[in-house]
Structure formats: structure tokens, C-alpha cells
Design goal:
The chain starts with a helix and ends with a strand. The protein is built from 19 helices and 8 strands. Helix 4 packs across helix 10 and helix 9 crosses helix 10 (122-147). It has 2 domains: 4-179, no CATH class; 204-417, OmpA-like domain (60s Ribosomal Protein L30, Chain: A, 2-Layer Sandwich), CATH 3.30.1330.60. A 4-stranded mixed beta sheet has the order 5-8-6-7. Strands 1-2 form a two-stranded antiparallel sheet. The protein is globular, with a radius of gyration of 22 Å. By secondary structure, it is of the alpha+beta class.
Length: 418
């Protein structure tokens, strides 16, 4: 189940008004975008943690229907967003009254955690929490109207959203939301630093059906992509000349199609243990075991041209919006990066060569940036990640065929520092 709150503010995050908001707060637009994402995720988790309190849910129902602001309105009228951070705005008053009922005495802790994860000032993070409050209430109000829900119906419906909302909680705040903490020393340190992701507890009865579903999706996805290449080569291969050319532009090129081997299907599920004490079940031929093997290899130092292709990421057609089915692999990669906290990475976005070249570069950049944003929400520090859109550059297959073009539309990751 996707997080409906984060899904509903996608257009707000792309709004040009966030640049104005960033200027007013004295922060970068990237910091504000990520801060707003984390604020919405924090509010969602806080509400989910109180979803069994019927008195609170009744208050939430009333507040949503009277104080919410539809995100669509904020997108169509940019002045709405800038008005939300004004100290004397009604939205700010609503937030100052509502946030303590959600977070109790931990409101400042929430703002501080968001500030630490984004590099912004705590007061700016608090302003973004204030901005997020009426937007979240507006999303809830839209659901109430769309489904004709009463207060009781809203309470029952919201209970169904609980797990997906908690799953996206910023990791440094898991204790506030009553989430179970891990016991390993490395993980505790990562949690304290705001890096370790929350691992939701799922009933065992769902485990094997979930694994079966992942296997089927993995096989279908790899077949659709024509068993595209995922094994990257190093600078010692013939691709080194392309790498030398791209270095002048500040990035190292990925190897050409001729220097990569065809990738097998996802394969059987395997167990993988991370240094943080986290255990994962992943496809044996997926990107996850390849990434971990690279990070554990002492002979690799992040200076060679090794790219790994994500194999289970999906986007909406001709858009940068990630499909909900991408969540499983995004969570896995975030856990891996958290487990190796000194590693830094570049996320590369690629398209085929159809359409306008400039539009392709923009689309690939937006997709790579969205992947980075999601990894940050899942607990990876933003200063460890870089997004780069390459458009149709560095194809791994023949763009003259449908299969080749599908192989060239991809997201890849390169470890730049270990």
C-alpha cells in the first residue's frame, strides 16, 4: 500500500512556489522540498500512531473538514504556499495548536530531526511542519468528501492506512511514534544520527505471499526489459575511453552495451544480513546483493566506473512519478546505504533516444532526483546522494528496437565513495 499523503503532495513538491518559500526561509529549494516531504511523512506517522484514539480521530475529522487546504489549490495559486509560512497566518495558528496534540512534547524534537536530515535550520523545519499541517488536513478532507465518510467511517478508513504511514516515518523519530527499536549498537547509532530506517513489523502470514508476489513481479519486469544488462565494468575495460571523455563534464560514463553482460531474471529469494543487524529477503539476481558485494569488497574504492541498474523501479509513462510497486526496492537500497554510512552514491537517470533531447535530459534528471528524494525520506542523509540525468547518453542497448529502448530507460546507482 502506498503512502497516500506523500502521493497527494507530489505536485506541490514540483511547484515553482517552493523556490519562493526557500527564499523566504533562507534555505535551498532542495532542502525545502525534502523538508516538506519529511514533514508530511512525520505528520502522517504521528497521526497513524494515534489512530486507535477515537477521541483524537474525531478531532482530526473535524479539523480536516474545517481547516484543511487542498494541495491542488496550493499548486494552482502559488501564493497559497508562501502564505502558509507567514507567522500570523491562520495555517500557522492551526499548526501551533494541532502539532502538540500529534507529537506531545516532542514537536521540537521532530523539527530538529528534520533539520538534521536536511541541513536546514530548526526554525525553518518548524515552519515547514506548519506548512505541511493544513496540506495534510486538506488531503484528509478530500478523502472524506470523495468517499462520503462520517467521523466513524473516517476512523475505520484511516486505520487501514496506518502501516503505510508508519512505514514512511523519518527514522530518527521511530521512538516518538512507538515503533520497535533495533538492538544492535550500529543501528542505534544510525537511529540517533537520523539515518536508520524504520522496519515495520508484518504478520508472518503475509510473508510467503509477499515473497511470491515479488518473485512474479521480478520475473515479469526483467522479461519486459529484455533481460537488460546489469553487470557493470571497471575503468580497465574498453569503456575507459568513454569514461575519460565524460570526466571532463564532471561525471564518469557508464560502460557501453558491448561491455556488459545480459542480466538474468530476478532469481530465487535469498537472505542478506547487513552490518546494522537488518535481515532482508531479496532476489538473488537483483541489484541489492550486487550493491552489497561491491560495498564489502575491499579492493573497490568508489573510483571505478561501476554502475548498478535498479531492476524493480517503475515510473508513470513519460513522467517522473514513481509507481507504488517501486517501494520495495527503494526500501531495500535505503537499508543498504544506511548500513554503510560512509558510502556516497550518484543516482543516474537515463532515457531512450526518442523525442526531444532536452526534454529527455530533464525527464531523466527529474526521475533521478525523485529516487534520491525517496531514499532521503527513507533515512539516507541527503549529503550522501547526488542525482544526475543523462537523457539518452550512454545507451546499453540498440535504440532501433523496442526491447533496446526499454533497456535504455533505466535508473542506475554508482558508489562514488566508500
Amino acid at each position: 500500500m502506498s503512502n497516500f499523503l506523500l502521493d497527494s503532495i507530489t505536485d506541490v513538491l514540483r511547484s515553482g512556489a517552493l523556490g519562493t518559500v526557500a527564499g523566504q526561509l533562507g534555505q535551498s529549494e532542495q532542502q525545502v522540498t525534502r523538508g516538506l516531504q519529511m514533514s508530511v511523512a512525520s505528520l502522517g506517522a504521528g497521526l497513524a500512531a494515534k489512530s486507535q484514539d477515537k477521541g483524537f480521530m474525531r478531532q482530526l475529522f473535524d479539523l480536516a473538514t474545517t481547516r484543511g487546504i487542498d494541495p491542488a489549490r496550493a499548486v494552482s495559486d502559488p501564493s497559497v504556499l508562501t502564505g502558509l509560512i507567514a507567522p500570523d497566518s491562520s495555517a500557522n495558528v492551526t499548526a501551533s495548536q494541532f502539532l502538540p496534540t500529534v507529537f506531545g512534547n516532542s514537536t521540537n524534537t521532530v523539527a530538529t530531526a528534520i533539520a538534521g536530515a536536511t541541513g536546514m535550520r530548526p526554525e525553518s523545519a518548524m515552519s515547514l511542519l506548519g506548512m505541511a499541517t493544513p496540506l495534510v488536513l486538506g488531503v484528509l478532507a478530500s478523502q472524506i468528501r470523495r468517499n462520503g465518510m462520517t467521523a466513524a467511517g473516517f476512523t475505520d478508513w484511516f486505520a487501514l492506512q496506518r502501516d503505510s504511514l508508519l512505514r514512511e516515518a523519518p527514522p530518527a523519530l521511530r521512538g516518538i511514534f512507538g515503533m520497535p527499536a533495533t538492538t544492535t549498537r550500529a543501528t542505534d547509532a544510525a537511529v540517533a544520527a537520523g539515518l536508520a530506517p524504520y522496519q515495520p513489523v508484518r504478520p508472518d502470514r503475509w510473508l510467503w505471499p509477499a515473497i511470491a508476489a515479488i518473485l512474479v513481479l521480478g520475473v515479469v519486469w526483467n522479461v519486459m526489459r529484455g533481460n537488460r544488462a546489469t553487470t557493470a565494468t571497471t575503468a580497465a575495460t574498453p569503456a575507459a575511453s568513454a569514461a575519460d571523455t565524460a570526466t571532463a563534464a564532471g561525471e564518469i560514463a557508464r560502460p557501453s552495451a558491448s561491455s556488459t553482460a545480459a542480466a538474468p531474471v530476478a532469481g530465487a529469494m535469498m537472505s542478506m544480513h547487513l552490518p546494522t543487524g537488518v535481515d532482508m529477503r531479496v532476489p538473488a539476481n537483483g541489484v541489492e546483493p550486487k550493491l552489497v558485494a561491491y560495498l564489502q569488497d575491499p579492493s573497490r574504492h568508489g573510483t571505478d566506473t561501476v554502475w548498478f541498474d535498479f531492476d524493480r523501479l517503475l515510473f508513470e509513462p513519460n513522467a517522473a512519478t514513481l509507481a507504488p510497486s517501486s517501494n520495495e526496492q527503494l526500501h531495500n537500497v535505503a537499508k543498504i546505504l544506511v548500513a554503510y554510512p560512509t558510502a556516497r552514491a550518484t543516482i543516474g537517470g537515463y532515457t531512450d533516444n526518442t523525442g526531444d533531447a532536452d526534454a529527455n535530459v530533464k525527464l531523466s534528471q527529474d526521475r533521478a532526483s525523485n529516487v534520491v528524494s525517496q531514499l532521503v525520506v527513507l533515512g539516507v542523509a541527503p549529503n550522501r546522494l547526488t542525482a544526475k540525468g543523462y537523457g539518452a547518453a550512454h545507451p546499453v542497448a540498440d535504440n532501433n528496437t523496442d526491447i533496446g529502448r526499454s533497456q535504455n530507460r533505466r535508473i542506475s546507482i554508482r558508489i562514488t565513495e566508500k
